[in-house]
Amino acid sequence: MAEISVARARTVLARAFFGDPLMVWFFPDPAVRPHACAAMFGLFAERYLADGRVDVAARSEPVGVAMWRWPSPQAAAPDGPEELPSIGGLLTGFLGAARAREIGDAMSVLDALRPPAPHAYLHLLGVDPDAGRQGVGGELLERGLAAARDAGLVACLDTMNPANVPFYEAHGMSVRHEVRLGQDGPTSWAMATG
Question: Which SS3 state, helix, strand or coil, does residue 67 take?
């Protein structure tokens, strides 16, 4: 399986999510968005590459990445002082305290819509737009879904992009819940297998 660096993962994800309704809602300025997304996704990449399931698709270089939160036999406890920045701190820095709190409150409804634990949660799946429409996303998704099936787990995700719903449905997932995020946010589709 191909490996990926944090720098490449954050770049692939920032390019893949540039037009995603959630990222447009978070970062409406298109000049700021790729950099803000890369900073945020870099934090997720650090975490998942250290302790998660990461699937990578590569051609001459990595062009797609899927990051899964897998059930842990025990709750992870912090191993020392908090490392900065945190996702909340980064969003506060980019958006201001009031807007970051508003977005955090809107996003908090998603946890309750997921299947009961344990489950495999697809947090991020992105393909560099230059490698789009070549089956990379399906290849990445199928790897994670197969691993979830082998482990006897329900796989789930949240997507805020309506164009993604048929893609995930074609891979055996179905919409379980549909909810609007906040008053001005995008719609989220909670999807799962089984």
Answer: strand
Prior bond of 115 cis (ω within 30°): no
- CA–CA separation, 97 and 93 (whole Å): 8
Q: Which of 17, 87, 100 is nearest to 47 (CA)?
A: 87
Average pLDDT, rounded, for the chain: 93
Question: Helix count (H) and strand count (E) of the chain?
Answer: 7, 6
Cα(51)–Cα(155) distance, rounded to whole angstroms? Answer: 18
DSSP strand pairing (174-180 vs 187-192): antiparallel
CATH code that applies to domain 6-73+96-192 = 3.40.630.30
Tokens of 79: 């191993």
Question: How far apart, in whole angstroms, are the C-alpha atoms of residue 146 and residue 124?
Answer: 17
- Spatial contact of 143 and 55, defined as CB atoms under 8 Å apart: yes
Quote the CA–CA distance of 165 and 174 in Å, as a whole number: 8
**Cross-strand pairs, 119:** 154
Q: Max alpha carbon distance in the chain (Å)?
A: 43
Summarised one tens digit per residue, pLDDT across range 38-90 is 999 999 999 999 988 999 999 889 999 999 999 876 444 456 677 889 999 99
